[in-house]
Amino acid sequence: MRAPVLLLVAVLAEVTFRPAGTPDPAPAVPKGPRLSVSDFKYNRPFDPGSSGWKKLKLDAAALAGSQGYTDYRIVDTEGFQVPYVLEGASEPVRIELLALSDAGDERRAARLGDWSVYRVEVPFRELPPSRLKLTAADPVFERRVVVRVPRHHANQEGPFTDEETRIVAEENYSHRDNEEPPRALVLSLPRLRSPLLFVDVDEGDNQPLRFKRPELELDGYTLRFYSQEPGTLQLLYGSSRIGPPRYDMAILGSGVPDAEEISLSETGAITSETESFWNSDVLLWVVLTGAVIALLALIVKLVKPEKVAS
User: Fold this and answer.
1) What is the pTM of this model?
2) What fold characterizes domain 93-218?
């Protein structure tokens, strides 16, 4: 009986003697071990503002640069990890693409029999699973729409043969009401590893169907974490060598308190200089140049003794 009484006294003391308006004490969310920034391809500083629970909204660049949403890390200025919980967002992330009806180099359309073929450029070299939304500008139509992407071995600049592309989505698209605007055609796409899409439209015996400006949709995600003190933090991602995080904070699950939503800077992703150098074509050329110099030195060394002997 004594233990419950002591617990009740402690609770009453907490309620009675804490001044009104006093903020709740900071939760015990210890930082994780240090990380090397050079292990990640992208490093994006951001300001979390005042201390407290925050919800960092991931933009299209952060979603596109991640290796399966498991390589995100938040670190402070000293490199210590800030634990977080990955959560799905209520709204998708939208990427506007160039209008298919635009002329010039940004849009190339060719008439192949009864098909219109459009080349669409995506602003990222890789994308997680997404949805391509196409909306027709004509009221009455019936078409077959096919989406293709270059194969891994194909020259990414083109031109492409049929064997160098593969079909990733296809749907029938029709509308039969002059009064109501057409609905959007939503095509589910797998993970893309090319910045190019090809949209093929079977026109039948009709003029090419006109489209409004298309867009891509990505599932949205946020990182919920506790900011212990004001100051710049860094979001790291783009590493194939690091596994999913294993923070004790994940045990809380839905028990993590509500948080203030914050966004990444609009200045875009900052590439880590170390990572970008050692994982780029520069390293290849450095190695090849060194090999050629070493080979030439060896040839000169072998040829000189023969001349002296002769």
Assistant:
1) 0.73
2) Jelly Rolls (2.60.120)
